[in-house]
Amino acid sequence: MTTSGDTLAVRVARKRQEAQDICSLELEHPQGQPLPAFTAGAHLDVHLPGGLVRQYSLCNAPGQTQRYQIAVLRDAQSRGGSQAVHAAVHEGDVLTISAPKNHFPLAPQAQRHLLLAGGIGVTPMLAMAEALSAQGAAFELHYCTRSRERTAFVERLGAAAYASRVRLHHDDGDAAQKLDIPALLGTCDAGTHLYVCGPQGFMDAVLGAARAGGWPEERLHYEFFGAAPVASDQDAAFDIEIASSGRVIPVRADTTALQALLDAGLDIPMSCEQGVCGTCLTRVKSGQPDHRDHYLTPEEQAANDQFLPCCSRARSARLVLDL
User: Fold this and answer.
1) Residues 20 and 117 placed together within one structural domain of the fold
2) Where are the alpha helices (DSSP H) in 15-119?
3) Does residue 200 fall inside a structural domain?
4) CA–CA separation, 310 vs 308, rounded Å?
5) Which residue range(s) make up the domain with 32?
6) Rounded to whole angstroms, how far apart are CA atoms 153 and 157?
7) Fewer CB within 10 Å, N or C, the chain?
8) Radius of gyration, alpha carbons of the chain
9) What is the pLDDT of residues 288-322, one digit of tens each?
10) Exposed (0-12), middle (13-18) or buried (19+): which is 180, by Cβ within 10 Å?
């Protein structure tokens, strides 16, 4: 069998070096059958050697269900996932993956799409560009990297039908080709939607400039690959109450809410444990969460009716969860 529940087995048909410290994997069904369809912006949960599970965006065209393609940056600051892909995954290996999930879809109502990618954040943007080009939609892709040597998929982008809509920006290049984010986003054209993915500093700069330029939140679409560490020395203990049973679970200052729930025997779906993927999103019936995620929008956080227990905590002494 190649499937089990919400997971399926795939074979690494090809592993390729795409740029300095970036490799791609092409994943196929072991028996050559079609894989589940996906939409632009979708990602996979990939089960890696050592028991790790990591999320990687699909970067091939959405219509290509004979294969999935992902690309991974070797990150010295990672928690082991990127090292596993680069060092322990080889052509011919069989991996377990989830079916495609999409928390970063294209907005169907947009009249124009502005795609901004930083580094490895180009992966979902490639699938978006392929889909938009096939639809004949109006879009532009800006791809920012440290150098040309660290720019993945250069040949693919140069040969694409949408090559004229792609702008490459390198930190070590001439000043004239560097992306001026405030200038690009200083005003919001009617009907334009912005999509951004990449390192946190890049995303913070893009979203900050967009908000300063008056972009409405509903036109801002983003996906974080990882979250920067949050200082925890001031964290305090709090209680979680399970609404369905009245059971109270204490959360120590040095423990996440997710870990406390798991230790108490509750079955909470989880994946990234960084507040990025949204897998563990839980409804809050009362109490005030201390939101530390990069998944909910500012408006969703302000509503205080849901939180991500993998990273967020409580400002109130107790949170009542809809579990």
Assistant:
1) no
2) 81-88
3) yes
4) 6
5) 3-98
6) 6
7) N
8) 21
9) 999 998 888 888 999 999 999 999 999 999 999 99
10) exposed
